[in-house]
Amino acid sequence: MSRPYSSELRTARARANRRTVVDTAQRMFVDEGWTATTMAKVAEASGLTRQTVYQQFDSKLSLLDACIDNALSDGKAMPVRDMPGYQQMGVGDRRIRINAGARWLCSAHERSAEIQNVLDQAAVTDVAAAARLADRENTRWAEVHWATSLILGSEPADEVVDGMWTLTSRRIWLMLVRDRGWTADRWRRWLAVQTEAILTSA
Asked: What's the distance, Cα to Cα, between the start and end of the chain in Å?
């Protein structure tokens, strides 16, 4: 009887350690940047050994990747497309759908823009990070395509998706909210207006 219990305990401990490492690393990446944040420092700040951290993540890049995924999903173990706020983009008339999309993305950027920006920084000097960024941007384009099709209720043209992919970029969010001092609500309203213009001209 002890073996299943012991196995469950180890699984629970590993899950808790992973959560601790991701939460700690996310704060450190955002506060200290890509270069200054090391696996050793994350382990120390997490109260864990380096071996324990490496058992969960084989590299600093894989740890950053996990931090980004955690931020995007709001710490929930579900695909982004299954999140209730995301699915609201497929309900109601077009204006309601656009506003739902703006609300969802505003919330997503509040959670994830800063940690995703760390990958942008890493990609400047790290070849593997640059490749991972390219993969993530390709995935983001596909997600924008899916979200736009939900709002329109039909297949969008690539040019429309390209426009939305550019408009919804975290870089624009950071430029306006972090650098220009916009509130999140102002950005959300601006995004809704710009989205309406792009989709109306489609």
From this structure: 64
What own/partner pairs with CB < 8 Å and gap ≥ 24 does 165-168 have? 165/140, 165/141, 167/191, 167/194, 167/195, 167/198, 168/105, 168/144
Nearest-angstrom CA–CA distance, 136 and 44: 29
DSSP type of residue 178? I
pLDDT tens string, the chain, 202 residues long: the values are: 445 657 788 788 888 999 999 999 999 999 999 999 999 999 999 999 999 999 999 999 999 999 999 999 888 877 888 888 889 999 999 999 999 999 999 999 999 999 999 999 999 999 999 999 999 999 999 999 999 999 999 999 999 999 999 999 999 999 999 999 999 999 999 999 999 999 998 6
Alpha-carbon distance of 136 to 158, in angstroms, equals: 18
Measured from the Cβ of residue 181, the count of other Cβ atoms closer than 10 Å reads 8
**How far is Cα 39 from Cα 27, in angstroms, rounded to an integer?**
13
Assess contact for 106 and 191: CB atoms under 8 A. Answer: yes
Q: Which residues have CB under 8 Å from 202's CB, separation 6+? A: 152, 156, 157, 160
Domains of the chain with bracketed CATH? 1-58 (1.10.10.60), 78-200 (no CATH)
Q: Say if CB 129 and CB 61 are below 8 A apart.
A: yes
Residue 169: DSSP 8-state: -
pTM of the model as a whole: 0.89
d(CA 59, CA 31): 19
